[in-house]
Structures are given as structure tokens and as C-alpha cells.
Amino acid sequence: DAKTTQPPSMDCAEGRAANLPCNHSTISGNEYVYWYRQIHSQGPQYIIHGLKNNETNEMASLIITEDRKSSTLILPHATLRDTAVYYCIVRAILTGGGNKLTFGTGTQLKVEL
Amino acid sequence: EAGVAQSPRYKIIEKRQSVAFWCNPISGHATLYWYQQILGQGPKLLIQFQNNGVVDDSQLPKDRFSAERLKGVDSTLKIQPAKLEDSAVYLCASTTGLDGGNTIYFGEGSWLTVV
């Protein structure tokens, strides 16, 4: 499985953009980058995913470098409710035909006033 | 659209007892996953189903854990006998298929405490 590396924690002021980095230098050509977040006592919430191109939805933007070895999740206007653990995941393709998300320890984002 | 449903939400049992968790995936989702999340760690995959067949169960402790998805829709995860280290959140997730671009959605989880 391609490993991901994220900073253990980050702080962000409310209303400012939160930029969460992720390294995935061993990613394969057909593997997607996914971002989830998890607020205590809740299940992981899907945010966004991408393969090669930058992606944007109502929650966030995903910027993937041209060599695909790293990516950045951008929350354009962070609010207190965005405080959570953010997981960057490379979706691995299994030899048996399946695929799975392998979670690391993620980045604890704390949004403050 | 209804999300992934799980029950029970919370369960406390004594060690060596058995417990079962139920999951109903999003309608039409052929692929179903069970994950285990120990406090302070990221979720770890236990088993993956495609319809009613097992795709990957390499990380399922088969001496005590079992899972089934007999009709290819809802699924049950069982632990028997439970150990203290099984205390965790058990997350069910589903997606439409095995393509890497299909979003995987998670349920709220079933919290297990073994005392």
C-alpha cells in the first residue's frame, strides 16, 4: 500500500484558509488520493478525491502535484466546526481485484477564534 | 439518500462473551467494508465484500471474528469470544463498486467496550 505522510497537528484561525499537506511519494498511476475527516465519536466523513487533476467541491479543494507525489487539501474559509482529524489516503488496488482505504494517523486540525 | 446504517450504536460486554454488529449499506452499493478503529488510531480494514463474496479478509482475526453478507445487502460482524483488546469502534462502509473513483461512505460506527 502506498504510504502517506501528514503533519500530526495544525492550527488555523477561523475564516482563514486551512492548507493541509500530504506526501504520497510511492503512489501508483491508477491509485486515487482521498481525503476524509473525523470528528470525535463520528464515522469518517468523505471530503474529496482525485487522480491527477485538481478537484473542487462544496467542501474543499484538492491540489495534486504534477508528479502526484504530494497533495494539499484546502478548506477555503475554516470554521470552528472544521476542527477534526483529517486523513489523506491513497486508495490501494488489491491483487484480488478489490481496493481499500488504508488510514494513517492523520492531521489534527484545530480551528481557533 | 439514506446513509450507511449500523447497530447497535454502543455495546458493553464482559470478556469471553460474544457480540454481533449489523450494517445496512447505502442502497445499491455492491461493495461493503468493515473497519476497526482503536482509540487514537486510524481505522483498520478487517474485511471487504463484493456482493455476497469476500474480496479481502487478510486482516480479520479469524479465530474470533467472523463476518457474513449472505444476500449481498446487509452484513453482520461477530466477535466470539471477545477480548479486552477488542474494545474499539467498528465501522461499516460501502461503495457502488470496486473502481477506485467510487466514493466510500462510512456509517457512524458501533462502539464496543469489553470489560
Write a structural description.
- The complex is a heterodimer of chains A (113) and B (115).
- Chain A has strands at 9-13, 18-23, 33-38, 45-50, 55-56, 61-64, 70-75, 84-93, 99-101, 107-112.
- With 113 residues, chain A is mostly beta strands.
- In chain A, strands 1, 3, 4, 8, 9 and 10 form a 6-stranded mixed β-sheet that branches. In chain A, strands 2-7-6-5 form a 4-stranded antiparallel β-sheet, with no helix packed on it.
- With 115 residues, chain B is mainly β.
- In chain B, strands 2, 4, 5, 6, 9, 10 and 11 form a 7-stranded mixed β-sheet that branches.
- Classes of the chains: A mainly beta (113), B mainly beta (115).
- The A-B interface holds A 30-32, 34, 36, 41-46, 49, 51, 87, 91, 93-94, 96-106 and B 4, 31, 33, 41-45, 48, 50, 55-56, 91, 93, 98, 100-101, 103-109, 111.
Overview features:
heterodimer, A: 4-stranded antiparallel β-sheet, 10 strands, 48% strand, globular, B: 7-stranded mixed β-sheet, 4-stranded antiparallel β-sheet, 0% helix
In a nutshell, what does this entry contain?
The complex is a heterodimer of chains A (113) and B (115). Chain A has 113 residues and is mainly β. Chain A contains no helices and 10 strands.
Helices and strands in order:
The complex is a heterodimer of chains A (113) and B (115).
Chain A: E1 9-13, E2 18-23, E3 33-38, E4 45-50, E5 55-56, E6 61-64, E7 70-75, E8 84-93, E9 99-101, E10 107-112
Parallel strand pairs in A: 1-10
Antiparallel strand pairs in A: 2-7, 3-4, 3-8, 5-6, 6-7, 8-9, 8-10
Chain B: E1 5-7, E2 10-13, E3 19-24, E4 31-37, E5 44-50, E6 53-56, E7 65-68, E8 75-79, E9 88-95, E10 105-106, E11 110-114
Parallel strand pairs in B: 2-11
Antiparallel strand pairs in B: 1-3, 3-8, 4-5, 4-9, 5-6, 7-8, 9-10, 9-11
